[in-house]
Specification:
The protein has 825 residues and is α/β, with parallel strands linked by helices. It has 29 helices and 28 strands. The strands form five sheets. Strands 10-19-18-12-15-16-17-11 form an eight-stranded mixed beta sheet. Strands 21-22-23-24-25-26-27-28 form an eight-stranded parallel barrel, surrounded by six helices.
Length: 825
């Protein structure tokens, strides 16, 4: 931790105003050689952005992140003002703790300040003491002020274990999130130490603050009733590599390269973060402003308000996680799991609550808490760790906009095709972009390891990052082209420049036009076997998009979207209207409607779902519907009424036993007869091993099976597909899973019903080949995968697919199966 020396503490001072108080602190820092005196202007600049008054007479002025080059050495200066000085409306500072931080060495001092905030008598003592040593000791923890021992002081931390953090970027957001997730599953208090720093294993901010680089050593210790089990779980996770996947994509150097090509226009070099080209006018992106009152009279009410809003933001992130998971897979969606951890971080929550107790409003307290910690992260030397400051600001802003009043500018969002230019984009900003309008992205800061870059690649939007502040001076409407392959933004391009890019775009367009034209052709193998390729959808817009993409229907309509982001369940009439709109959008193509599938990782608060120790093994899928029969009956009435508009099939999720299916079918028959609807085909999802082993009996009761490969994989392998460590091992091409699929298909054939499949491997070229070879006759995939899967199947013979499937069933593991796709023996 940084030392605080006597020459950086000034006692008994007076100040005319805030600026004078800051100037006195700057004089102390400059005289000690810690800063360039110009850093004082940066501190005043910070005050214009956010009031740095914490409460109980304490202020912590600090500079803007862009001016860190003016800091020669991280340091802190303290100016004591017994009479106080006005720091803002209603605020009077008596202890000014000025921070010049180019690293995170000052974190412990800030932690000690948070302790003082909760103790008005101690804050008053420090503001009036005549002993410099009192202030130094209290802020550095040098034992001048004894602290009350913790309640469990008699129980010491054990020896723990040491481990090396693998991966190029060490303990960055994703592996740190994995550790936090595991630590929170235990009652024990867990510490992680690196060098002379110690962090709380249940706090993502605390772990990131350790600055553990790739190959860094840590020591984990614990105390509490389950300390040994906690340490064993953490050790196993670290040895397994946590959830550390490369975040950088193709270009991860983090530095701008010299351009490899030349354009006639003005070239601005950045970092190639997402490949591709764009020609469009520049559009300068501006984020909304949130306004709020700084003070509040009722701390209890503000605490309740903050708690409620944090929960709401958490639900929003859960929805965003599901949406990105569906579009781009779990690795990309994992970004928003880290955001959820930020919202629940005990250090941020404690800091915000301390400010609320000091009379601050919930939005003021929250903004101060998350911005201060974001600045700490931004000061870290590792670019990936520093880049997580953007993620913290993104998560924090999500809460702030719910607490305050949003003043949005209609001109802040593009309405025409553009190259979007911004200082940086948060993951939420990027995930919300419309690729039809935003044809390219150029940011002044950030890099290819930023989460916004990762999402840009997943949306297939060309992007250049780290182009420098000069891009922010480009006026909206300026003609430009973006070369994502070489990391260039070109303004004022010549005709020759645009001609080159237009030619490249035209060639790409022709290729995609051929794919578009062919996407309507059936997936007919070279020896004449047809496989239907249909779409997974969640809303009416996706139903239309599925048809446009060449989908031959909908193999999975997730109806959960109807129940999200609302205070109560949708009415029967509302559901009829939405289902009917989808059926009509398909224009005669079939649609399989899955009844409500909640539970496990999909919780809807107003449905009063029980808190379960093992929700994936609890009341989910058909079990939930049977225990909430009125909701189930309402949905079935809506589906049957809508079925008059076109071909509809009903599918029940998570059926594990014949008794569950019998009861669901009986209710469905009652509902159908009540409203006089015609019979429709009925099927079930095969997602659990018991359904596979009872497939013959289940097949005697229904018209079709649809194998949910994602859930089947996690239940067969006993690996939660959302688990921070195990998720990447939950591969649907594991032979154990393929053998379950083989058993299912054979049982279905014996009863003369057909089998489809949905989930990740259905949209994987190798997975589609093997599934068809096993006898699956319908593949339900994400909309962007439809054309590729159909093209893949058209190039193959079913005879060869069957041989490949037989070889896959005999493989020892998923790696060997995937090697078959690469021509392995």
């Amino acid at each position: 931790m940084i030392s605080l020396t006597n020459n950086l503490v000034a006692l008994g001072r007076k100040a005319r105003d805030k600026a004078d108080a800051i100037a006195q602190a700057v004089d102390l820092l400059a005289a000690a050689g810690k800063i360039d005196p110009r850093y004082g202007d940066s501190m005043l600049g910070r005050e214009k952005v956010a009031n740095t008054f914490l409460g109980n007479g304490i202020a912590i002025p600090h500079g803007l992140p862009k001016d860190r080059e003016l800091i020669r050495e991280t340091a802190i200066a303290v100016v004591q003002l017994p009479e106080g000085v006005d720091w803002g409306p209603g605020d009077r500072a008596r202890l000014v703790v000025a921070i010049a931080a180019k690293s995170d060495e000052h974190l412990q001092i800030l932690t000690n300040l948070m302790d003082v905030l909760g103790d008005p008598a101690e804050a008053d003592r420090l503001a009036t003491t005549g002993e410099t040593g009192d202030i130094v000791a209290r802020l550095t923890g040098a034992a001048a002020v004894p602290a009350a021992p913790p309640a469990d002081a008699g129980e010491a931390f054990g020896d723990g274990f040491e481990a090396t953090i693998a991966g190029a970027h060490g303990l960055h957001a994703r592996p740190a999130t994995a550790l936090v997730d595991i630590a929170k599953g235990f009652k024990a208090e867990i510490r992680v130490a690196h060098g002379d720093k110690t962090g709380n294993a249940k706090s993502l901010i605390s772990l990131l603050g350790l600055g553990v680089a790739g190959g860094g050593r840590i020591r984990a210790t614990a105390r509490g009733p389950d300390a040994d089990r906690a340490l064993a779980a953490l050790k196993a996770a670290i040895e397994a590599g946590l959830d550390d996947e490369e975040e950088a994509g193709q270009a991860a150097s983090g530095t701008a390269r010299a351009p490899e090509v030349s354009y006639d226009g003005h070239m601005i070099a950045g970092i190639a973060s997402s490949p591709g080209f764009a020609i469009a006018p520049v559009f300068r992106f501006a984020r909304e402003e949130v306004v709020f009152e700084a003070n509040a009279a009722d701390p209890a009410a503000e605490r309740r308000r903050l708690d409620a809003v944090v929960k709401t933001a958490g639900r929003q992130l859960e929805d965003l996680y599901e949406e990105v998971w569906k579009k781009s897979g779990p690795a990309k969606a994992g970004i928003f799991r880290a955001h959820q951890e930020f919202l629940e971080d005990p250090e941020i929550v404690a800091a915000a609550q301390a400010l609320i107790e000091a009379g601050r409003s919930a939005p003021f307290a929250w903004k101060s808490a998350y911005l201060d910690r974001a600045d700490m992260l931004a000061a870290m030397r590792d670019p990936v760790l520093a880049g997580r400051a953007v993620d913290l600001r993104d998560a924090g802003h999500r809460v702030l906009r719910l607490l305050g009043e949003v003043k949005s500018d209609a001109a802040a969002h593009p309405t025409e095709p553009c190259i979007l230019v911004a200082d940086d984009l948060t993951p939420s900003d990027t995930a919300g972009l419309d690729p039809a309008l935003v044809q390219g992205i150029c940011t002044a800061s950030g890099g290819p390891t930023s989460h916004s870059s990762i999402i840009a690649r997943s949306l297939d939007i060309p992007a250049v990052t780290g182009a420098g502040a000069s891009v922010l001076d480009i006026a909206s409407g300026t003609p430009a082209l973006l070369d994502g392959a070489h990391g260039l933004l070109v303004t004022g391009p010549s005709e020759a420049d645009t001609g080159r890019i237009r030619t490249a775009l035209a060639d790409l367009g022709k290729q995609r036009e051929i794919e578009k034209r062919d996407c309507y052709r059936p997936a007919l193998t070279t020896d004449g076997v047809r496989i239907e390729v249909v779409a997974n959808i969640s809303d009416t817009g996706e139903a239309r998009a599925a048809v446009d993409a060449g989908g031959e229907g909908v193999g999975l309509l997730r109806t959960e979207f109807l129940f999200l982001n609302r205070p109560d369940a949708p009415s029967e009439e509302e559901q009829v209207e939405i289902y009917a709109a989808m059926i009509e959008a398909l224009n005669g193509l079939p649609i399989i409607v899955r009844t409500l599938d909640v539970g496990g990782d999909k919780a809807i608060p107003y449905l009063r779902m029980p808190a379960e120790e093992n929700p994936f093994l609890g009341e989910r899928g058909i079990r939930f519907c049977l225990s909430h029969e009125e909701i189930f009956r309402t949905q079935l009435r809506a589906i049957y009424r809508a079925s008059a508009r076109g071909p509809v099939r009903i599918m029940f999720p998570m059926v594990a036993m014949t008794g569950e299916l019998d009861r669901a079918l009986a209710i469905a028959t009652e509902v159908r007869r009540e409203i006089g609807a015609k019979e429709v085909e009925t099927g079930i999802m095969i997602e659990v091993p018991s359904a596979v082993m009872m497939a013959r009996e289940l097949a005697q009761r229904v018209d079709f099976f649809s194998i949910g490969t994602n859930d089947l994989t996690q239940y067969v392998l006993a690996m939660d597909r959302m688990h921070p460590v195990l998720a990447r091992h939950a591969d649907g091409l594991q032979p154990a899973v393929l053998r379950m699929i083989d058993l299912t298909v054979k049982a279905a054939r014996a009863e003369e019903i057909w089998v489809g499949a949905c989930g990740g491997i259905a949209g994987d070229p190798l997975g589609a080949t093997i599934l068809s070879g096993l006898g699956v006759v319908e593949l339900s995939v994400s909309i962007p995968s439809i054309a590729a899967v159909k093209a893949q199947l058209r190039r193959q013979s079913m005879a060869e697919n069957r041989k490949l499937a037989e070889r896959a069933l005999a493989c020892p593991d998923a790696g060997a199966v995937r090697a078959l796709g690469r021509g392995g023996a």
